[in-house]
Amino acid sequence: MKIAYHDIYTHPLPADHRFPMVKYELIPAQLLREGVIVAEQLFAPLPATAETILGTHDLSWWEKLRDQTLSDKEQRHIGFRQSPLLTQREIVIAQGTIDIALHALDHGIGFNVAGGTHHAFADHGEGFCLLNDFGIAANYLLQQKKAKKILVTDLDVHQGNGTAALFAGNDKVFTFSMHGAHNYPFHKETSDLDIPLPDGMTTGPYLQLLEETLPRLIDQVKPDIVFYLSGVDILETDRFGKLKVTAAGCLQRDELVFSLLYKHNIPCAVAMGGGYSTRISDIVNAHCNTFKTGLDIYGS
User: Fold this and answer.
1) Residue 136 to residues 67, 154, 184, 216, 277: CA-CA distances in angstroms?
2) Is 107 known to be catalytic?
3) C-alpha–C-alpha distance, residues 200 and 80, integer Å
4) Does residue 300 surpass a pLDDT of 90?
5) Rounded Cα–Cα distance for residues 20 and 43 (Å)
6) Catalytic pick from 6, 57, 119, 287?
7) d(Cα 179, Cα 231) in Å, to the nearest integer?
8) pLDDT in tens, 105-122
9) CA pair distance 124, 277, nearest whole angstrom
10) Which among 81, 164, 194, 213 is most buried, taking Cβ atoms within 10 Å?
């Protein structure tokens, strides 16, 4: 199994920044240290081409990112200061998700250590997202006729608003988001299926709801591939998540998703999404569990 990872994923930020950028170097390091993967499974994606990006994003937005002409307001909405390196990072992440989706079609599953930039719209970015990697990769597969029907399963605690908007009215991509009802973004878009969760939801009801929903969606959509956003901001330790799912429950969530997809012989492209627990070890351990579970179920 191949895992997309590039040194550029860990972007320099101010020391007091709330985004846990260091996780992107800690995740592969821990997987290697624990013997879950070997170094040969990691590959460094090349940058996505402008043509590929423009299959999803507006030219005017791409030019702002390319030419470093974002306004102060646009940068505040994103949460990062613009820089050529930051733009390059997002371009590489997007290609990484394309690559692992293509790998999943051939080998069952593929992982991107970063990605899940689901708050990026066609014409703007927000919530730490500049380009929508799932959107870019899904459109690439459709354009290249590698897939006819795609299911996006977004289990980050924040609604995949950018992804929902990108594929509104598109019957080739079904967007499913199960997220905190009272969490960011406070103006929600309309996914094909939204399940808003109450604050404080615990592990049992969370897993029951997912177990009732996802099999039905698989039968309904009959996807050629699933893009799975496995955010770990559902954890009870998360500073912003507002849910009460345990670390064991987060692992059970991944087991549920991967087992169901494997049972139906559906390829899965996985991106990590968010996680904001106070202890970086809680974030990294939960993300690493996603890799371990997927590799175990699909076979490493």
Assistant:
1) 20, 15, 23, 26, 28
2) no
3) 29
4) no
5) 22
6) 119
7) 10
8) 999 999 999 999 999 999
9) 27
10) 164
Is the separation of the CB atoms in 289 and 250 below 8 Å? yes
| Widest distance between CA atoms in the chain | 48
Structure tokens at 2: 């191949």
- Return the closest-CA partner of residue 284 out of 213, 235, 227: 235
pLDDT digits (tens, 9 = 90+) for 65-109: 999 999 999 999 999 999 999 999 999 999 999 999 999 999 999
> Average of pLDDT values for 17-33?
97
Q: Would you say residue 131 has pLDDT above 70?
A: yes
Measured distance CA(165)–CA(229) in Å, rounded:
16
Residues in the chain: 300
- The token duo for 203 is 């592990």
Q: Which of 31, 162, 197 is nearest to 90 (CA)?
A: 162
Structure pTM? 0.97
